[in-house]
């Protein structure tokens, strides 16, 4: 690349004017204005070692920036996951507490219902035994006819009570 300078701007033998490149600005490659003074710098510029070092350094900085960005993103995702886990855990605990309370309520209801139905069953069993005993007495040949009729009516009444208690037990289950 050749640089043109005007000749009329000299002071003590030095050129004081601004150097203007003859190539368009977009075509210039990593030109670093410096005094090359020695052969090594001329070689370094010729092989563009400084540009390679700068490129390598820039890439290293880019990678470090990307690593930091990824670390921050990882922390954000971990925090988001922790918050989601906490919310799910809180919801789970609330639902489990609700189910435990509901279980206690239902168990108390069913225990009461079981006791009631057991009592009704025991009463029905006792009535059936009474009906059997009444029927035995009524069917005994030595029992007078009027007494047989009374025993028969009593047996029918006990059987109707037994049916009513069965219906009551059915309503309890609804």
Summarize the model shown.
With 174 residues, this protein is mainly α.
Overview of the structural elements:
With 174 residues, this protein is mostly helical. The chain has one domain (3-173). 74% of the residues lie in helices and 5% in strands. The chain has three helices and four strands. It has helices at residues 39-47, 49-139, 145-173, and strands at 3-4, 10-11, 14-15, 20-21. The strands form two sheets. Strands 1-4 form a two-stranded antiparallel sheet. A two-stranded antiparallel ribbon has the order 2-3. β2 (10-11) and β3 (14-15) form a beta hairpin. α2 runs antiparallel to α3. It starts with a strand and ends with a helix. Residues 1-9 and 23-33 have low confidence and may be disordered.
Properties at a glance:
two-stranded antiparallel ribbon; 5% strand; rod-shaped
What is the fold's blueprint, element by element?
Layout: E1 3-4, E2 10-11, E3 14-15, E4 20-21, H1 39-47, H2 49-139, H3 145-173
Antiparallel strand pairs: 1-4, 2-3
Helix pairs in contact: 2-3
